[in-house]
Structures are given as C-alpha cells and as structure tokens.
Automatic annotation (TrEMBL):
UniProt entry tagged with the keyword Cell membrane: yes
GO cellular component, one term: plasma membrane
Organism, scientific name: Gemmobacter megaterium
InterPro entries in the cross-refs: ABC_transp_permease, BCAA_transport_permease
The keyword Nucleus belongs to this UniProt entry's keyword annotation: no
Annotated compartments: Cell membrane
Top-rank taxon, per record: Bacteria
Protein family: Belongs to the binding-protein-dependent transport system permease family. LivHM subfamily.
Spans traversing the lipid bilayer: 14-37, 44-61, 67-93, 105-129, 149-170, 199-218, 224-243, 250-269, 275-296
GO BP terms, alphabetized: amino acid transport
Principal location listed in the UniProt entry: membrane
UniProt protein name: Amino acid/amide ABC transporter membrane protein 1, HAAT family
Membrane topology per record: Multi-pass membrane protein
Length: 301
C-alpha cells in the first residue's frame, strides 16, 4: 500500500469516524443515564439529515448566502432533537423506564420502523443532497491530492468540540452534576431533591440532538435516502459496545478505530468493508466483555 493511498484511507476514516462518533456518543449517553438502548436513535440521525437537506435546499432556492447553510445544519439538528426526541421521551420512553429491557428494545424498534415510514411519507423515496457547505469551504491539497476542507477539517473539529463541550457540561455545570448523580444512584439523587424525570428528559433530548447533528453534518457528504438510519444505528451500537456502553470518552477512540479500519478495508480488501466494524467489536468484546473502557469504577458524588 503506497503512502498516498494510506493517507487517503486515513483521512477518509477520520472524516467518517467524526460522524459516527456524534451518533454513537448520543446513544451511549442515553444508555448510560436512562439505561435504555434506543434503537430509534437511527431514525433521529436520518430525520436530522432530511431536515438539514430541506432547510439548506430552501435557503439555496431563495438565493441566500451559502454560508447560511452552516447554521441551518445546526438548526435542523436542534429542531429534530427537541421536537422528535422530546415527544419520544415524554410520551413513550417515560412509560417504559421500569420495564424489562427486552420490552424496551422491542418498543424502540417499533418506533424506529414507524419513523422509517414517516420519512417516506414526508420526503418520499427520492434522494436529497445539499452540497453548499462543501463548496463554501473549498478544497485543501495534501501531497498533491485535493480534499474537501469540510470533510478533513470541519467534521473532525466538530467532533472534538462536541466531546470537549459534553465533558465540560457533565463535569463543570449544575445540570451536568445532576445527570451524573442520577446516573450513579437515582434513589439517592431523588432523595436530595433532584427531579429524575427532568434529568431523563434533558439527557434524552441532548442525545437526540447529537444523533440528529450527525445526520445533518452528513448531508453535504452523501445522498439522503430512506433506510440510512438502519445502517447508522448498527454501526453506532458497534462503537458504543466497543468502547463500553455508557462510556462517553471511549466512544471517540472506538469511533476512530472502527472508522479508520473500515476505511483501510475499502482500499485494501473491499469485500471486508461491511464486516470490519463488527469483527473489531467481536474481537474486543471477547478480550474485554465490558468494552475497551467499560471497567466498573466507584465514583464519589
């Protein structure tokens, strides 16, 4: 494998890992706090992508400055997370927190199937694409190869900022301290006056916004099609399981590991591309059943 090809594979893997991390960290945050493995998380990713394509397409059709598509991506993610995620938590998940995990899994899978059909009803089956952010940021040349700055600079920066911002929120804010307290011991947190239901709602909305942001940021790099959420939820679960379910910091490294490995597989052995993320997950779970960073630790609140 030549140096040039290795560089291409590495940059492609980092770009893909950035999107994968945004979705996976939302999934692992929800599981870590609520204890629910939300299969419908993939639908939030897809709806975020559709919303971003719709808003970006409208701005372009109206002749607005292409740079306005960047806030449109964030607006689409927040709108999807707050509205769809908020309604999902308030009227569905809140009713099953104490239920059997198998029932929770089946119900969230049912919601996923419903939302898949809602997407077809609202947006149809034709592909959507919105490339203005790619053109706005232009290209960067490395070793004679041209890359889009959006993919190799903007997406990794967004992933890192998200990681830093999320950790700061959880460790240095009152709302974050409440989330950590409920995660560690719900009964004790409730006994000192923390509203666990409110904490669950806020956590789920944050996780939903992260999933939708992954979809929104993916819109300029790929066609938005029905079924895109199914592939992403499986991959994001592989990342979360590899890192250790509920482990936020590990999700970034696991996403990078899986994203880069998948990218190299595309260039070296294309037939193993689909297999690679799950092979990595299986091997790591056989070695460390709790995931790479899933060791149980006592924490003082």
């Amino acid at each position: 494998m030549t140096t040039t090809l290795a560089l291409i594979a590495l940059l492609d893997g980092i770009s893909y890992a950035s999107l994968l991390f945004l979705v996976a960290v939302g999934l692992t945050l929800i599981f870590g706090v609520l204890g629910v493995l939300n299969v419908a998380h993939g639908s939030l990713y897809a709806i975020g992508a559709y919303m971003a394509a719709t808003l970006g397409g409208w701005l372009t059709a109206q002749g607005y400055n292409p740079w306005l598509t960047f806030p449109a991506l964030m607006a689409a993610a927040i709108l999807t997370g707050v509205v769809v995620g908020g309604l999902m938590e308030r009227f569905l998940l809140r009713q099953i927190y104490e239920k059997d995990p198998t029932l929770q899994l089946l119900i969230t899978f049912a919601v996923f199937m419903v939302l898949e059909n809602v997407q077809r009803m609202v947006w149809g089956v034709q592909p959507y694409f919105m490339s203005e952010p790619l053109r706005a940021l232009g290209n960067i040349e490395l070793l004679g190869i041209r890359y889009t700055a959006y993919q190799i600079v903007f997406l990794p920066v967004m992933a890192i900022l998200t990681m830093v911002g999320l950790r700061y929120f959880l460790r240095h804010t009152l709302a974050g301290a409440k989330i950590v307290a409920v995660t560690e011991d719900r009964e004790a947190a409730t006994s000192i006056g923390i509203d666990a239901r409110k904490v669950y709602f806020v956590t789920f909305v944050i996780g939903a916004c992260l999933a939708a942001m992954g979809g929104a940021l993916a819109t300029p790099t790929t066609s938005v099609l029905p079924g895109m959420g199914a592939n992403m939820i499986v991959l994001s679960f592989a990342v979360a399981a590899t890192a250790g379910l509920g482990n936020i910091e590990g999700a970034l490294l696991a996403a990078l590991l899986i994203g880069v490995a998948r990218s190299f597989a595309v260039y070296i052995m294309p037939e193993t591309e689909v297999l690679m993320p799950y092979l990595i997950m299986v091997l790591i779970l056989l070695w460390r059943p709790m995931g790479l960073f899933g060791a149980v630790q006592a924490r003082k609140i």
